[in-house]
Amino acid sequence: MNGEGNSGPVFADPITADILLSVNGDERPITVDTRETLLDTLREHLDLIGAKKGCDHGQCGACTVLVDGRRVKSCLTLTVTVDDREITTVEGLAVDGALHPMQAAFVERDAFQCGYCTPGQLCSAVAMVREVADGWPSAVTADVSGPAALDDDEIRERMSGNLCRCGAYVNIVAAIKQVGS
Amino acid sequence: MRPFAYERATDVRSAVAACVAGTADGAGAVYLGGGTNLVDLMRLGVVSPGVLVDITRLPFDEIEETAGGGLLIGAGVRNSDLAAHPLVRRRYPMLAQSVVAGASGQIRNMATVGGNLLQRTRCSYFQDVSKPCNKRVPGSGCPARKGDHRNLAVIGQSEACVATHPSDMAVPLAALGAVVHIAGPGGSRQVPMPGFHRLPGDAPERDTVLEPGDLVTAVEVPPLPFATRSRYRKVRDRASFAFAVVSVAAALDLEDGMVRDCRIALGGVAHIPWRAERAESALRGSPATEAAFAQAAAEELAGTTPLPHNAFKVPLARNVVVRTLLDLVEAP
Ligand SMILES: Cc1cc2nc3c(=O)[nH]c(=O)nc-3n(C[C@H](O)[C@H](O)[C@H](O)COP(=O)(O)OP(=O)(O)OC[C@H]3O[C@@H](n4cnc5c(N)ncnc54)[C@H](O)[C@@H]3O)c2cc1C
Ligand code: SF4
Ligand code: FES
Ligand code: FES
């Protein structure tokens, strides 16, 4: 198949692209290596260190950000692909210094311990509540053709892409339920 | 990761041309969908393309009704949008269920229908460039056969490779006889499933019938009125966010307690989404009873050739087929 195997580096130099990146409402022109992921661009070049690198393989959700309002894993997103998209990181959830309701609920419900997974949980939860409002089904929705409620089972299933090594899950579910209902 | 050039395709013809051209020094080009599999494999060094042709801006991100009452699903449709589509949910519940049973919310927002069909095996040796693997490096050997193969194939595998195809979505598509639309350097063609994916044989490096430069543009799901009574059931090692150990997609057409028609396909058991044609023909015209379901499953699974650590998949598959069919009989 095309492009397979390790033929070794044929290009001596990295290949770069000049793009305009829109993050949390700010447009920033930057030059990126085509290999760079959005997670690395945010953390290493834009000083936005909210999104975390847990696994770098799409398995933990610590790097979750929103692209055009949808939650994605920034560790599997190449920066060069999102140049005219609207990116929101955890730093962009609060408005005018006031916590986003999801952030406030996480504080109130004690929905974290070390906090490493929290930025990803927050971005994921904000988008997930909207997915439910838009009527998207999940794997635990009994009738896939009908709407879903935001009960504990639905929240757990829909948040399964976000792991928490501290096991704060019970309070995370409570916080999301508080916001969603 | 090897440096690569990035090209954003704006129409099908230029996408195919860019993919065929590759690089001047002969390094290949590959299409980039959501990147959830490709970027990971590039980071692991399993694939090292010289050019990525981004196809996510091509105008094939729509789901349209076909004249006969089926659906034409653009290859760029994101997995979440496929599962959320009202007609998919109403007409083909097993298809919507299979998509939401896969990966996580974030990954489904990124993953495309084309990329999902073409995702590579999760065999651990394939993903580990320090190990031999016939699929990654043809002729280097298959350590899975004597090593870790608990999650690998029990039917249709070869001496060269015992990998499974990991897609959930492909299982109901195989059951439905979906047709893959392809645009290639030599023109367009259509390939019905399950014939799109290949058994490994002595060329496990080829997962599908695609030739270099071939672009999947759409997947057409034929009309199947009785698929409103269909279900996808997935068994995995944890409750969510895990690949299938075994899965079943089934649709039943019942009349007076008899099976008039049915569709059954299995996931997690083979190098391809496995259409259970023997079970289907055993069931047509038989009573819709547990005994008949068990008999049909046994006929299908008589052809299995499990390995020492995955023999459990055979009774598991039988039980999941029977349970899923019984659920469909009991469904309102
Ligand atoms: C942590 C994790 C868990 C997962 N769990 C599951 C699971 O439980 N069930 C499941 O089914 N899947 C699972 N997946 C896999 C996921 O479904 C696939 O990675 C995804 O569907 C691939 O789609 P993509 O658009 O991102 O493909 P890409 O990664 O962009 O591409 C995959 C391959 O397809 C090729 N390609 C893409 N589009 C086209 C096209 N139109 N024509 C020709 N070639 C094309 C690419 O060149 C590449 O070789 C999981 C993935 C991750 C990372
Ligand atoms: S089963 Fe296939 S993919 Fe796995 S090691 Fe063997 S050849 Fe490679
Ligand atoms: S760092 Fe992206 S999912 Fe773990
Ligand atoms: S709070 Fe520590 S990982 Fe979740």
Would you kindly provide a written description of the structure presented here, covering whatever features stand out?
Chain A: This is 2Fe-2S ferredoxin-type domain-containing protein. Chain A: InterPro entries: 2Fe-2S-bd, 2Fe-2S-bd_dom_sf, 2Fe-2S_ferredoxin-like_sf, 2Fe-2S_ferredoxin-type, 2Fe2S_fd_BS, Aldehyde_Oxdr_Iron-Sulfur, Beta-grasp_dom_sf. Chain A: Pathway: Alkaloid degradation; nicotine degradation. The complex is a heterodimer of chains A (181) and B (332). With 181 residues, chain A is of the alpha+beta class. Chain A has two domains: 16-92, Beta-grasp domain (Ubiquitin-like (UB roll), Roll), CATH 3.10.20.30; 101-180, [2Fe-2S]-binding domain (DNA polymerase, domain 1). Chain A is 28% helix and 15% strand. Chain A is built from five helices and five strands. Chain A has a five-stranded mixed β-sheet, with helices on one face. In chain A, helix 2 (101-108) crosses helix 5 (169-180) and helix 3 (118-133) runs parallel beside helix 5. The radius of gyration of chain A is 18 Å and the shape is globular. The termini of chain A are far apart. Residues 1-7 of chain A have low confidence and may be disordered. The N and C termini of chain B lie far apart (53 Å). Helices cover 27% and strands 20% of the residues of chain B. Among the domains of chain B are: 1-58, Uridine Diphospho-n-acetylenolpyruvylglucosamine Reductase, domain 2 (2-Layer Sandwich); 229-330, CO dehydrogenase flavoprotein, C-terminal domain (Enolase-like, domain 1), CATH 3.30.390. In chain B, a hairpin with a 2-residue loop joins strand 6 (179-184) and strand 7 (187-192). Chain B is an alpha+beta fold. In chain B, the strands form three sheets. In chain B, strands 4-5-8-6-7 form a five-stranded antiparallel β-sheet, with helices on both faces. Chain B has a four-stranded antiparallel β-sheet with strand order 9-10-11-12, with helices on both faces. A three-stranded parallel β-sheet of chain B has the order 1-3-2, with helices on one face. The mean pLDDT of chain B is 97. Chain B contains eleven helices and twelve strands. The chains are: A alpha+beta (181), B alpha+beta (332). Chains A and B meet through strand 4, helix 3 and helix 4 of A and strand 2, helix 2, strand 3, helix 3 and helix 4 of B. One FE2/S2 (inorganic) cluster binds at residues 112-118, 164-166, 168 of chain A.
